[in-house]
Each structure stands twice: as C-alpha cells, then as structure tokens.
Amino acid sequence: MPNTKELKNKYDAIVVGSGGAGLTAALQAHELGLNVVVLEKNEKTGGNTSRASSGMNASESWVQLDEGIIDNNRDFYEETLKGGGLLNDRAMLKYFVNHSALAISWLMKYGIRLTDLTITGGMSKKRAHRPASMEPVGFYLTSRMTTQVKKAGIDIFTGAKVTKLLQDAKKRVNGVEVETPDGIKTVKAKVVLLATGGFGASKDIIKKYRPDLVDYKTTNQPGATGDGLKLAEALDAQLMQMNFIQVHPTADTDNPHVYLIGEGLRGEGAILVNKNGQRFVNELSTRKIVSSAITNLHEDGAYLIFDSGVRAHFAAVEFYDQIGLVEHGTDLADLAKKIGVNGANLEKTIAAWNKSVATGKDKEFGRTTGMDRELDRGPYFAIHVHPAIHYTMGGIHINTETQVLDTNGNVIDGLFAAGEVSGGLHGNNRIGGNSIAETVIFGRQAGIQMAKYVRESK
C-alpha cells in the first residue's frame, strides 16, 4: 500500500472503508470518471467481508440457468421479507433483488467468477453464488477487488482512520479529517461514502442497544466498531433498527479467536445434533430460529456432523481442519466417542436422516433444502459450535440511492452509505448470502449515485 504521505488534499470522492461495499463503490465510481481515494483504518483491506464464507445471493442469474435452476426475483423478495420478520425496507429490498443478477455479471468484468451454487437458510433455491474452487467467497472477493482497485490506479491507504466528516457553509459534506501515521490530515472531496461496516465488535454500542448480548463472543474482525455510525450521528444522521443484532448459530467459540462455520456447510448437507446424538431443529431454518434452538439446549452448544461427501463440497472445511476445529472418526461410533455424544443414538439419527434424504421428506423437522446427499461416506467429522454475534442489521438510514437521511428524514447533502453500516435492508434477521450481495449491489449503486451527484453539482 502507498505511504499516507502520498495522500492528496483533494479528490472527487472519498470512500471510507475497504470491505466489499467500499471496494465495489470505488471501482464503479472510477468507471464513471471520478478521482477516488479509499481510506482504511486497519492495516489491510477487506473488513468483515473478507471473513464471509457461504456465498453471494442472487436470483435469475445466468449461473443459475446454466445449472438448470429456474428462479425468480419475486420468490427471492418474498423469502427475504419473511426471513426479516416483514421489517425490511421494501423499496431497498426491491432494488436489491432486482439488481442481484446484474451484480454477479458486473463482477465478471473484473475476473471475479462466482460460478458455483449452494443454498442458505430461509431460501428455497440455490442462490448463494461462490467461486468454482469453493474457497470462502469473502476473501476471494476482497483480495481480487483490492488488486483491481490498485490496477485501476485508485489511491488506497491503510492505517488511515477517518475521525470527522467536514461540511461547508451550506451543510454539504465536503471532506474528512483522517488520522495517519504522519499526523491528522484534512482531505477535501465533492462526496463521501461511509462503507465502514457494522458494530458487531463494539461492546459499548451493543451494550447500549442489546445489553442481553454483551457477553456473547463475536465472529467480527476487531475493527467492526461502528465508526461510521458515530461519524454520521455527529451530523444528525438517523440510525434505525439498532437493536436488530444477528446471532449466527454456528461459530467455534472454544478458542480465543472465534471462527464462523459457514452456513454453506449445512447447505451441502451437514446436520446438527445434541449431546444425546439427536437432531433438534431444521438446520436450515433462519439463523434466529437455529440460534435459539442451540441456546435452548443448555448443553454448551451443539455439534455439526458431516461426512466425506459433504466435506468434498465445502472447501472451507480444509481451513477449519488445518486450525484444529474438526474432530475425525473412522466411523460414527468412533466419532461419537471422540465428541462425547451418545453413539447408538447418533447412528440411529444418521440412518433416519439418510432415509429422509432418499425420500426427500424430513418428517421430523420439515427440512426441504440441503438434502442433496446422504451422510454415508466415512470418515465422519464433527465441529463443536455455539451461537455468536455475527451481524448488525441496523445502522444509518439511507434511501435506495444510498443517500444518508437525517433525523427529520431529509437527505444530508454529499454523504452516502452502503453495506453493513446502513440499516433497513434485512429487517430483524439477515439471510445468509445476502450481506455479500448487499455490499456489491449497494456498493455499485453508491458509486453510480456519487458520480451522478458530482456531475450535477458542477
């Protein structure tokens, strides 16, 4: 990354944050002729996006049609609305769904090919697009986008923390103050985008809005401290749905570093069992339902069980195994002994599950997705999981043009926001695969709208 001494005093657009939304917006705005700078407080780019592992949801995509999947935007809309407790911003959701397939195609221009499909909880069709190599989608996306941003000649600085938004006499946002290793600098611009992510690693904000979750561990990177919310709030921006914090059902919290175990593992056929070796929930219900079911066991979490067939279809397992999160068993009895669950019951559970897969009917819990293969190929594997804070649905109130609204519902001139820093799209529960999609869809929209704003303000 270039030294912050090279940071110029003036740009057309400043993008604060280098996760999926910030990188997408920078590329899109650059395509439309803007001189853009990306400022990132962490020492490397990627933000929380780089930790995502399941996929990027889209409906009516060419990738789906290539696999013979006939999907429609209406179903995607309705299922996301239902998953969000009907509390989603309908206009945002409509824009999101209708631009999802376009976002998959736009990424292709930059050699980012999400050509494999899986399914996540709350969805009826395979909508989660991921790399054919099945490597975790987040790092795949952000590492390649960072390369493309540099290739495009866009200035990108790490170790640069924005501490204040600046306004002119007419209250238009026209720059930022940024802390760098070389001291505090003032950078002016015609527009500023907040793409700073959520507040899943901020104990103080979580305590304010959800004191019941303050002792939960988090899957977020340490920089997810709600900086953008504080910057916007200082300008009287409206925050919305701040109490909607998502707990992800499957995280390994046994180590100092919390690891998210991607939903795609269940999408490929893994099941959850309790200490008694029995299933207790439809594993692909919404995250809210599955998290509650695990918590209500009062058994120190639960176990994800899968076989070699499932493992072969979810590459992230190789990483989980490498860092010691995966227990191995030559057969089910061996696995049960290693993880301390009832062996006879585990064998019965797997036999019943395989029968459900063969008939396509899960009589016990009504699961209808992630049933492509029986668990019948040894060796078998288990991962110990607990729910952990994963995502913050609430945030800055924006409109479909990604403009930031103040507490009276008026647009704050020159200020835009996209990605997890914004609120409203997901309602009270985010569907797995929708956050990556949000960063690209609304990152692109932010880039487009910033270019439009700059052109109109000349």
From TrEMBL:
It comes from the Bacteria. Residues 12-436 form the FAD-dependent oxidoreductase 2 FAD-binding domain. Coiled coil: none annotated. Keywords: FAD, Flavoprotein, Oxidoreductase. SUPFAM superfamilies: FAD/NAD(P)-binding domain, Succinate dehydrogenase/fumarate reductase flavoprotein, catalytic domain. Gene3D superfamilies: FAD/NAD(P)-binding domain, Succinate dehydrogenase/fumarate reductase flavoprotein, catalytic domain. Its cofactor is FAD. GO terms for molecular function: FMN binding; steroid dehydrogenase activity, acting on the CH-CH group of donors. Pfam families: FAD_binding_2 (PF00890). PANTHER family: FAD-DEPENDENT OXIDOREDUCTASE 2 FAD BINDING DOMAIN-CONTAINING PROTEIN, FUMARATE REDUCTASE. Belongs to the FAD-dependent oxidoreductase 2 family. FRD/SDH subfamily. This is Flavocytochrome c. It comes from Lactobacillus crispatus.
